[in-house]
Amino acid sequence: MPPRTIREERIALGGKRRRAAAKAEVNPLREGLRLERVPDPHITVLFGSTGDLSHRKVFPALAQLSRTNLLPADWALIAVGRRPFDDESFRAEVATSLKQYARVALDPDMERQFLGRITYHRGDFSDSASYDALSAKIEGMHLEQGTEANVLFYLATQPSAFPLIVSEIGRCGMDHEVHGGGWRRIVVEKPFGRDLDSARKLNREMLRVFREAQIYRIDHYLGKETVRNLMVFRFANGIFEPLWNRRYVDHVQITVAESLGVEDRGAFYEETGAVRDVLQNHLLQLLSLVAMEPPATLAADALRDEKLKVLRAVAPASKANISRQIVRGQYGDGWVAGNPVPGYRAEKEVDGHSETETFVAGRFEVDDWRWSGVPFYLRTGKRMAKRATEIAIQFREVPHRLFAEAATDPQPNLLAIRVQPDEGILLRFGSKVPGLGLAIRPVTMDFTYGTAFSTDAPEAYETLILDAMLGDQSLFTRADEVEAAWSIVTPIHEAWVDGPAPEFPDYAAGTWGPEAADDLLARDGRRWRRL
Ligand code: BG6
């Protein structure tokens, strides 16, 4: 046999590892097409590479993909940043972050190999010359490393830098796809705009350079294993879909609760607040996955068309109704997990009189044939009693109370999809308590990932980055979807700006939010589920 080239060796080695990995992995959810596919050779260009997001999420996800041989053999990363690193010192920086944030530690050889693929490009976002130099570097690397002219740009910078970076990429022609091969794609982090107008403007600016099919807007909730399972749960099972509508469902509650405060992101959060940070994106995405019609195929646009229809069917609250339909709150000091914590206004980089909301709850309706009249209650908050993200489908009561005389009245059925933590799905139904009398008690059938599957679920960022590399847009939000979500929440901000100042703080850290959030459901004769 003729001696193999280094590249052939790498590919053969990759193949062996992949086969070994495939044997070791037994999780049926990960079998099939996705595992077989490895992205095309390419260069990832990461803007904002010295930032928190890159070090906490992006590098650990890339390292895990590398560890499991899901990165192509010919792959390189150019880390762009302002700070004065060279290749060696930047790699050391990444190594330190991996120690802290990697899901599974890389063995030293693998880590060396991964870090060796990273080069640092120092440049200020406003310095045109640095983009010219970047463009030349990319071309040089394609020739040297066989990355076949494919480039994945990744914007993990402050959102204010997005338009400038995109237009500079365009000015240098770095967005140009080469005829007959050589794709160019761009991943954009959230927040995408801060209201409907700015989101539209940002979409226009991006679309001046890239086509929609090249743009990957991240909402990391869509990459979570439990969120991806929502579609499987709804559409790969026959027994739930017939019940999934206004005839059987009384209401839906979706909660994204965090026990953490704003940590060291005070300045960012002051500008953002709970509506922009979580309601506009994560919560409305969960709502659209729960409420959408089955797509005809799994093609990205078939799926996104269905989600878009839901968002367009959510009636934006009228200004007059906002105070009845939407509740905001801000945490004061309190106790979380047995420790005293300061109120929001005392957090670092936060104004002592801040009116930024750290909690929001709302009552929404999806005005379509399936859901008309079924309220969707959404809530999110920082410094709540615990971290819990859950979707609860509350079914209607039985039409005739045959057991009204029983010692305990049966509660209506409930399906709770626990997105995190304790990932799983629970179905509640009434059961007769064993005994001579007639007592009924709610019991649950419980599925937990931990006991059903023996492998860990991937981190959302691993899934999303791999999908962007593979060119699959299903788990990324489209321009019209993002704008539809902003159309729902922008009137809320407008009403708040025009209305009276909120009386903040109005909930103690470590609780479930302001009383007004309970009143929101009590007015409809309902209660938030205790999580
Ligand atoms: C981010 C928000 O999008 O989502 C953060 O900016 C929030 O404020 C985070 O903490 C929650 O994500 P997760 O994956 O921890 O639920």
Number of helices: 16
Biggest β-sheet description: 8 strands, mixed
- How many strands in all? 18
Write out the distinct hetero groups bound to the structure. 6-O-phosphono-beta-D-glucopyranose
The CATH topology of the largest domain is what?
Answer: Dihydrodipicolinate Reductase, domain 2
Q: What integer is the average pLDDT?
A: 91
CATH superfamily of the largest domain: Dihydrodipicolinate Reductase, domain 2
Number of domains: 2
Q: Beta-strand percentage?
A: 15-25%
Query: Which sequence of strands runs across the widest sheet?
Result: 8-12-13-7-14-15-16-17
Shape: globular
Q: Look at the structure and give the CATH class of the largest domain.
A: Alpha Beta
SS-based structural class? alpha/beta
Runs in which pLDDT lies below 50 for 5 or more consecutive residues are 1-34
Task: Annotate the secondary structure layout.
Elements (H helix, E strand, L loop, with lengths): L5 H19 L8 H4 L5 E6 L4 H16 L7 E7 L5 H15 L6 H8 L2 E5 L5 H18 L5 E5 L6 H10 L12 E5 L7 H14 L5 E3 L7 H11 L13 E9 L8 H26 L8 H14 L5 H7 E4 L1 E2 L1 E3 L2 E3 L17 E7 L9 E7 L6 E8 L18 E7 L3 E9 L7 E9 H4 L7 H11 L8 H20 L8 E2 L6 H8 L9
Helix pairs in contact: 3-4, 3-14, 7-8, 8-15, 10-11, 10-15, 11-15
This protein binds 6-O-phosphono-beta-D-glucopyranose.
